[in-house]
Amino acid sequence: MKIETREWGTLDVADDSIVHFKSGFLGFEDHHDFVFVDVEEFKPFLWFLSVDDPTIGFAVADPFYFSPDSFDVNLSAGDEDKLDLREGDSIAVFVVVSIEDNGCKITANLKGPIVLNTRNRRATQLVIYNASACVNQPILNRRTMPLSSAVQGAATKSNAAA
């Protein structure tokens, strides 16, 4: 599949790399299919781009990368159903990141993590009702390294057509 983007031109996206939200993405309920875009100069963040409308995208990150011991995700039976979780399945967790003040202020939404079943690429966005989780947790001045190993099949900038 080819996706025309404003930032990277045409991206070649494998069908099996598309992430599907059964109920849509919170706030964007009409958008069910997204793809991770791995841009070298944006690491350790990824772009989470709507396949339905490539002008809609979010910076995302692995929350365990920034807070390895302090992030807990509990899935309800309904969440497990949306993800079609089976015994032996693995999940990946991402948080939406806000980048403000020309990159000087970077925060993560820990109240609305994205949970992905890595087997079937189904995802859901949780709402965490925990007073310790906040929607704008500062994550600036943390270590940096590629996250591409966490997201198999991410489209890369090098896949963009000139």
Description:
- With 162 residues, this protein is mainly beta.
- It has one domain (2-159): BH3618-like (Roll).
- Helices cover 7% and strands 33% of the residues.
- A hairpin with a 3-residue loop joins β1 and β2.
- Its main location: cytoplasm.
Q: What is the fold-level CATH name, i.e. the topology?
A: BH3618-like
Uncertain regions spanning at least 5 consecutive residues: 142-152, 157-162
Q: Compute the gyration radius: what is it?
A: 15 Å
Question: Helix and strand string, N-terminal first?
Answer: EEEEEEHHEEEEEE
Amount of helix: under 10%
- Strand percentage lies at 25-35%
Any key phrases for this structure?
disordered C terminus, 162 residues, BH3618-like, seven-stranded mixed beta barrel, mainly beta, two-stranded antiparallel ribbon, 2 helices
